[in-house]
Amino acid sequence: MNIRHKANRIRLFTLSTPQMRAFHMSWFAFHVCFFGWFGIAPLMAVVRDDLGLTKTQIGNTIIASVAITIVVRLVIGLLCDRIGPRKAYTWLLCLGSLPVMLIGLADSFETFLMARLAIGAIGASFVITQYHSTMMFAPNVVGTANATTAGWGNLGGGTTQILMPLVFSGILMLGVNEALGWRLAMVVPGIVLFLTGVAYYRFTQDAPDGNFSDLRSRGELPPATKEHGALQSFLSAAKDIRVWALFIVYAACFGVELTINNIAAIYFFDTFSLSLATAGLIAGLFGMMNLFARTLGGVFSDLFARRGGLKGRVRWLFVAMLCEGIALIGFAQMQTLAVAIGIMLVFSLFVQMAEGATFGVVPFINKKALGAVAGIVGAGGNAGAVAAGFLFRSESLSYQQGLFYLGVAVILASLCTLAVRFTPATEAEEGLAYEQASGERGNSAQPAAAR
Fold it and tell me: Which of 134, 137, 278, 369 is 20 to 30 Å apart from 18, CA to CA?
């Protein structure tokens, strides 16, 4: 897919270009999605008492919240190739808002489980965010752009942990009891999701030169016909072993982050006998690291590419994954609250840098099937969360033991980066593209909107 006039730098404080409008809207939309996706997580202690849930049942709801996203992420990447990220995001946000608002009707484990399963589809928003930023930014900054939009979106995992207990407390101050309070609290993110969907349609476009429908009508983009269809795109990506290697890698970084988002509040609540608000605040620190950590992963990916090309990006990904696994094993051993918080932050730094490093590599795997590649790799994150969820649903396995085993799995997964290789021709082509993008700032042929 040959998209022209991509931006070769990130101008954070402007909304005057389509590139930067897509940048800011995509991270904000993904950020808001976390309020719907994990808004119930910091309230689980209340939900547990209200619905009488066991640890195994809570584990099953955690698995449900991320399992459906595997399938939806696969589909959404193909949908982006077909109708463009603008329409795909709008539909996902508006339709996804409905189960978020309706989860309050759950009155049993079964209905609560089904609601979390439906809400999990919102997690596919990540793929659209990465797809849209890749459409808008040149090779010299695409790693940073992808990492920042995803990182600031993932930041929603932290702000959700902090703000949802406050929303809940505010509702209780109105005289509502806890059983009704958590149900009303979930209406708030549902409304915000719907309004964000409307704004996304209004203020963004698919590519720097217009929407996919416009580009196809002008002959600048292949038509969405059978020969360029979803099945061919998916098969092209699915046949590439590098895609599945990155699937496993992303399972071991973003999958781990999703798992921590789901269990952190109740873990600190039970283990250290904290209040719900305090446990939520501490759990929120993990996600708040996304303010800069995932961006760093992308920045380092672009920096390593300057000297080492695509090999440099892959080497950095391996280092970040290895450090993540070691830090997670250390976190699993902590028994003191202050030390546990400190090690959690170190672990959070590396897990999020690994995520940024992963999607610093993804745009270069198969440009003709970008949506399919992003969808498969993105689905890996949720597959990892599902697998990790089984570690924390067992009554006989403690949280500390589960985290230790998870750390070992991350270290083993880091070895999959060895399978991510590029041909000398691809290395040379992308090296030239990087140099051209870096030198375009002074090129008068480059439209001002792209700069």
Answer: 369
In a domain, 213, yes or no: no
Query: Which residues are 137's β-sheet partners?
Result: 7
At 141, is the secondary structure helix, strand, or coil? coil
> How many independent structural domains does the chain possess?
1
Q: Residue 442: what pLDDT?
A: 41
Per-residue pLDDT tens over the stretch 52-85 = 999 889 889 988 888 889 999 988 988 998 899 9
Give the lowest-confidence range in 96-110, 225-239, 292-306.
225-239
The CATH number of residue 54's host domain is: 1.20.1250.20
| pTM of the entire predicted model | 0.84
* 224 found inside a domain: no
For 413, phi then psi, to 5°, come to: -65, -30
**Residue 111 belongs to some domain of the structure:** yes
- The residues, any chain, with a CB within 8 Å of residue 261's CB and separated by 6 or more, are 34, 38, 41, 157, 160, 161, 283, 286, 287
Task: Determine, yes or no, domain membership for 215.
Answer: no
